[in-house]
Structures are given as structure tokens and as C-alpha cells.
Specification:
TIM Barrel; alpha/beta; 3-stranded antiparallel sheet
Length: 232
Amino acid sequence: MKYAVDLHMHSCLSPCGDMDMTPNNIVNMCKLKELDMIAVTDHNTAGQLEPIKLIADALGVGLLPGLELTTAEDAHMLAYFRTVEEAQAFSDEIYQHLPPIKNKPSLFGVQAYMNDDDEIIREEEKLLISALDLSVDDLFKMVTDRGGLAIPAHINRGSNGILQALGFLPPDIPFPALEVSIGLPLPHKGIPPVKQLHSSDAHYLENIFERTEFLDLDAPTPDAFFDYILHQ
């Protein structure tokens, strides 16, 4: 069955995420847009996923737990997990690999942890958009070893797309899928025949996808998504 998805967006925990991207606002907007499954992928952290999961479960919206990692090469990579607990454990592990650079809210934006009532419970002091001291290879192995999926983000867009950050797609890393930005050119050579994902990378509520992107899944669940990606 085809389910409407948007598997890359940011909450107000990401410094680049608008402060209206609260747990309730995100899930309710996705419900209004009749999305079946979403992924909130904050920069280098899964710290907002627990309240989002509570709200998503209550409203009947499937949640794919994830993060958007910044590699040492400044390439962005999505990391998806089957459970919030797995994503949070991985998030806790990589936190020590963030450089000790403090966020400047006036420059980068507030990094707000919220509860399921959209109340700010604390702010993150480390700048979450910094590059980790882990390479593409390192992070691919770490995510995969922990049962997750490591998928390069918006490979054909901007300096953080892997094609521009590295100049090529590493042929020796068996990425299970690629996220491709719609409407931008994609090289004909060097792109493996794996599944391609299209997501909004929304930082504002209005940028969350409508029912435009669909995946053929057994159900709008992480397990079904993993089955879809891993069975080419």
C-alpha cells in the first residue's frame, strides 16, 4: 500500500529550525496534511524525539526515529532507527564527538528542548550544527553496526550534499538508499541503483510536504520502512 511520507524535517531543537517547529505543531501540521509517516531529524541529536513520539502515537501518525548527522567532511547524512530508544542511545554516543563550540542563539538560533506540552524545558549549549569528528565511513559503520540505516542527505543540493562535500559518492560504502532533492540535477554516472528518497528538509511548518511523496510499505512503521529499503 502507498503511504504519504516526509522523512526529513527539523524541530526547534535544531538551531536552524523555526521556533514554531514545536512537537505539537509539527505532528498536528503533518496530521492536517494527511501524512502517514514522518521523520524529525534534528542536527546531530535525537533529543526531541520522545515528546514527538508521544504526540504522533496519540494522533495516529507514524514516526520514523532519526537524526541528521554532519560528518567530519561536512557532508550531511540521515540516520534512521527502528525505535526512539535506539536513536537516543546513538545520539548520546555521538554527543561526545561534537566539538566544544557553544551556540550563539542571536547568530544561529535557539536550540530548545520541549516537552509534549510544547514547554521549553532547557536549551542545548553545544552548537548542534557543528561537524562531528567522525568521517562518512566512521558514521556509516556506527549507524549500521547499531542496526540503523545511514543514508546521505540531499546529495545533489548545496555544500553539505555529499557530491559537493566529497566531490563524489564513495563507491566502497554500500549506502542502502540516497536522499535526492527534487528539481535539481543529478549526475548520470556514479549513482548506484538503490532506492531514492525525496523529503522536504522542512525548517518551517509551511515547508512540510503535502501528500506528494509516497512509499509502497506494508504499514507506516519503522519496521516496514526498513524492509522497504533493505529489500531492493
